[in-house]
Amino acid sequence: MSQAFHLLSILSLIPGGFGSLLAPPGPGPAACANLTSSLGLSKVVTSHLSLRYIETTQDYWNALQSNYQPSCIVYPQSAQDVSIALQAIRASGSRFAIKAGGHNPNNFFSSVDKGVLIDLSSLNSKSYDSSSTLATYGPGSTFGELYTYYAQYNRTLLGPTMGGVGTGSALGGGASYLSPQYGMACDNFRELQVVIPSGEIVTASPTSNPDLFFALRGGGGNAYGVVTQYTVQSCPAGQFYSGNVIYLFAQNDAVALAIKNFMQYNEDPKASIVATYMKLPTPGLGLNLDEAILTFLVYDGIDPGTAFDNFTSIPYVVNTLGLRSYPEVIDMPIPYLAQLTRGDNTFRVGVHLSSDDSYETVLTAWRSWAESNKGSYQLLALNYEPVPQSLTDASNAQNGGNAMQMPAGPWYWVSYILMTLALMTAGAYNSTQDSFREMVESVGNEEGLPLFINDANADQDPLKTFSTYARLQGIKQTYDPDGFFESKTGGWSFD
Ligand SMILES: Cc1cc2nc3c(=O)[nH]c(=O)nc-3n(C[C@H](O)[C@H](O)[C@H](O)COP(=O)(O)OP(=O)(O)OC[C@H]3O[C@@H](n4cnc5c(N)ncnc54)[C@H](O)[C@@H]3O)c2cc1C
Ligand SMILES: *[C@@H]1O[C@H](CO)[C@@H](O)[C@H](O)[C@H]1NC(C)=O
Ligand SMILES: *[C@@H]1O[C@H](CO)[C@@H](O)[C@H](O)[C@H]1NC(C)=O
Ligand SMILES: *[C@@H]1O[C@H](CO)[C@@H](O)[C@H](O)[C@H]1NC(C)=O
Fold it and tell me: Secretion signal: which residues (predicted)?
């Protein structure tokens, strides 16, 4: 009797209670136990102390997501492995996340706490068919790796302007330096292999599951299934006259006008810019002394004509314009940009017409927030991302346009990046996020234009700005009828 009592009191000290000795504690570990036996130890890592587990969980652009501890990480090597993983996760009732490049800063989009993380990095095959000029690749490479691989064929892919970003960026649309010529990255999809929420492996193309193919072209990733292979139209990549031009704060407003004029008037689709205003944590002293502007100017060809004259005619401090290969364009070496890196990062997005004075409204609201919130951010960045008419024409000419059904340009997206100070209290972090959101909301958006999901905060509900929202909702219902993905992984919601 007293022995039994003694045993019970020892058992009560076991975390998770007596039951934890008899059954795995919770659905995450149950799914992991199942997957360890079906896929084997080389594809499933459960030890939180293993190097591979630590590398995967540390590899998020928003460092706050590294705090989550998945029950295990699965590294599928085939679509079949992904299918087995989804079925085991479903059977256990566990939460999960799908991770490609880990650059989406929204919590639980590609991260999970106490559930199964599916890391796609082992699905990193790449090939090129020179007769069709189509490129086929798995989701596991970064775009930087893909650009380097396809450069050997003098080709490149439509994809993000920074090399560390993963293949999930094309599912969200994918804005490239080459988009004014060829449309968004997703417009260049020709065929996808997809493991849908049932676990079935299907093809999505103009002729097979065309509705799924539509949704995956800019409607986001982890809602309709897991893409295990992309076949896309590649494009030629020769020499690019390109570089960064950097100005002193005294020229900040002149540069803003040059950006606006480029967004409104440039008609050469081979000329492309991304313009980034940055605020450093140092005092501005009312003179914008804390502000740096970095323009990325890229011309597909060796002679840009007059396309960039409005930028080069303003006195600059640094000008690295010269001829580069495409991987070199992506790697343009920038001192400040080293700071646009892993940290406690969040995104917000806006959309505006190029023809009005919104470019100035945006800049004014952002500057005044930056000034009154000194001490709560490590870095602020504001990017102007032009959407010229050549881009929307190229988008709508392929596959009948993407999930955004982009209205005719010119208009532009503005992306706001906030890197908060590391180790803020929860209260300070939340109030900084709240006031940043209010600043972005105060600027407003142009009605009838889509918010870019790649740059959006989860609370912005960007899909609801798409004219195709009801159609996407129906497609979601068809491919995820019992709400498995909807209820068990993060991402854009359809309620
Ligand atoms: C430094 C930086 C630069 C950027 N530059 C650009 C740019 O130039 N152009 C642009 O368009 N965007 C850009 N972005 C935004 C970027 O495209 C998005 O953050 C995108 O979601 C990142 O994709 P990922 O694969 O790296 O991230 P992840 O977080 O791994 O994936 C993003 C989302 O897609 C889902 N997903 C990924 N792969 C699959 C798959 N195979 N099947 C199903 N779902 C999947 C994930 O579950 C997640 O919800 C940039 C972001 C950063 C941080
Ligand atoms: C294990 O996973 C398989 C799918 O791979 C599933 O069919 C089965 O029901 C799972 N077993 C348990 C006990 O959950
Ligand atoms: C790529 O272009 C370079 C320069 O024009 C040329 O020398 C090389 O042969 C080309 N390579 C291929 C694979 O076409
Ligand atoms: C340069 O700016 C002027 C207005 O000052 C505008 O008329 C012209 O179209 C712009 N050129 C380009 C290529 O942006």
Answer: 1-19
